[in-house]
Amino acid sequence: MEKKISKTLKGIEEDIKNDDLGKARDRLHGLISTFPNELELRKKLGDIYFELKYPAMAGRYWYLEENKTPLMVHACIEFEKSMGNDINNIARALKYKGDIELLKGMELDPALLYKVKELVEEPDVPIEFKEDKLIILGCLSIIILIFIFALVGVYTFFKWIF
Predict the structure, then answer these.
(1) 69 φ, ψ to 5°?
(2) Over the range 30-43, which residues count as b (16 or more CB within 10 Å of their CB) and which as e?
(3) What residues contact 69, with CB distance under 8 A and at least 6 apart?
(4) pTM of the prediction?
């Protein structure tokens, strides 16, 4: 695993040197989803978003940083404002899926920590078949409409001829 992280991090550093921040950002998103416990990756992603002039997004990824600079604190405040200062929105936007124990030593709002824990422990519920039922209902409606239009067309045709 460490080999994959270091190889990808080298690619990210190369992308940053080549001023391809979009590619570096995308690679970091992939690493964070694969290795959610590596909080340093979130810091790097926050740095990239800040370079791209997205302070609220930078704050989103710096939010779980333990030693924040004043710049990071300001970006985190921007992030909170963009989420309407709502704990539920903030917790969802953080998209933290790692070990909740890593966050316990941080200076986070207990309600936020509880909400993040709740979201981490929430099982991934498979998509219900509601969409399938809607598709089937839509297809049946279209078939019935086609049948009705065909009957009206045949009736009109015979009325026109006779």
Answers:
(1) -80, 165
(2) ebbeebbebbebbb
(3) none
(4) 0.67
